[in-house]
Design goal:
The protein is an alpha/beta fold. The chain has one domain: Alpha-Beta Barrel (TIM Barrel). Helices cover 38% and strands 11% of the residues. Helix 3 links the parallel strand 5 and strand 6. The longest helix is centred in the C-terminal third of the chain and has 16 residues. It comes from Anaerolinea thermophila (strain DSM 14523 / JCM 11388 / NBRC 100420 / UNI-1). InterPro entries: AKR, AKR_Detox_Biosynth, NAD(P)_OxRdtase_dom_sf, NADP_OxRdtase_dom. This is Oxidoreductase.
Length: 333
């Protein structure tokens, strides 16, 4: 397996990142731990979770699995802060108060003394960015966090954060975690060039478009165990006619190449310019086993125009930015 550099840090990570969003939710603890151990055995050394995933259960399961395996120090462990973790008015957001408390809570759940990559889950639209960066800076200086990153930020806010870090001598973001898949390629317009110029790792979430590209919704029905059923309208809005049509064509391409649709969709995302490590979140051990071969695959250059013909670079046929407050455009066809 060819490991990739995490931004400009010198840290090497696997070309796929194990996402833990399902752990403690649709995937029970025992199955989740089996998935984690199998992924580590296969060479994946990068795990991403968040404090809000299943009310902290995801972090607890990841922490337990790493402690049991004795492989914590061989894993680049990433988690996130922003979402609501309690009833009080300061139990969410990007304030120093919340970030410092949330970090301590995550460390406890993860059963570790440090977080390798601590990410801001969403931007703080009404809080000065230096408030957030100074809290992150203190966490890094104290040794509780190694690196910081952000998630689902517009390119201009990432650039603003880099400029503020430079101005005040604060720790800088080394990564951004955006939604990115064949159905929604809008980050190619500004975020990808920004990341390439300033040495930021890009860690896409939803590279399989929440199962749309795997063919889960080809029949037009909503399976009872699907992400659309669990997440409701926010996800169902992403299932568009054009998106399903693209997924059907990807399935045809995959069959011609002796692959599954999920493998081909993940491979396309993994090998796009500027991408470091897509985050895939298997719900079952079988899902993991299906996708592990992508670690060793490479996308054929002659296939790239075929994908571009399905969805033109920089465009979208489904809206995977509909979970944030800053994106005004909506895709509903």
């Amino acid at each position: 397996m060819e490991y990739r550099m995490l931004g400009r840090t010198g840290v090497m990570v696997s070309p796929l990142c194990l996402g833990a969003m399902n752990f403690g939710g649709p995937t029970g603890e025992e199955e989740s731990i089996r998935i984690i151990h199998r992924a580590l055995d296969a060479g994946i050394n990068f795990i991403d979770t968040a404090n809000v995933y299943n009310a902290g259960m995801s972090e607890m399961i990841v922490g337990k699995a790493l402690k049991e395996s004795g492989r914590r120090d061989s894993v680049v462990l990433a988690t996130k802060v922003y979402g609501k973790m309690g009833e009080g008015p300061n139990e969410s957001g990007v304030s120093r108060l919340h970030i410092l408390k949330a970090c301590e809570d995550s460390l406890r759940r993860l059963q570790t003394d440090h977080i390798d990559l601590y990410q801001l889950h969403r931007p703080g639209l009404n809080v000065p960015v230096d408030e957030t960066l100074r809290a992150f800076d203190d966490l890094v200086r104290s040794g509780k966090v190694r690196y910081i990153g952000c998630s689902t930020h517009p390119a201009w806010m990432v650039m603003e954060a880099l400029a503020v870090s430079e101005k005040y001598g604060l720790v800088r973001y080394i990564s951004e975690q955006p939604p990115y898949n064949l159905l929604d390629r809008r980050i190619e317009n500004e975020l990808v060039p920004l990341a390439q110029k300033y040495g930021l790792a890009l860690l896409p979430w939803s590279p399989l478009a929440g199962g749309i590209l795997s063919g889960r919704y080809a029949s037009g029905e909503i399976p009872s165990d699907s992400r659309a059923e669990r997440m409701g309208n926010m996800f169902r809005e992403r299932i568009t006619r054009r998106g399903v049509e693209v997924a059907q064509k990807v399935a045809q391409m995959a069959q011609e190449r002796g692959m599954t649709p999920s493998q081909l969709a993940l491979l396309w995302c993994k090998d796009q310019p500027g991408i470091t490590s897509p985050i895939f979140g298997p719900r079952t051990l079988e899902h993991l086993e299906e996708l592990l071969p992508v670690l060793e695959m490479r996308l054929n250059d002659e296939d790239r125009p075929l994908f571009d013909a399905l969805v033109h670079p920089g465009n979208a046929v489904a809206d995977f930015h509909n979970s944030n407050d800053w994106m005004k455009a909506r895709i509903t066809d």
